Amino acid sequence: MATETEPWFVTERSEALAAALLTTSEDVRVREERGRDGSLDLVAEIRGEAPLSLQLFVVRVKGTTSSDPGDWRPGVEALFHGHASPPHVPVCVFVVDVRENRAFYAWAAEPMVEPKGATLRSHEVGTFRSLTPATVGEIIDRVRTWYDALARQLTPA
Question: Which DSSP category does 66 fall into?
Answer without folding.
Answer: -
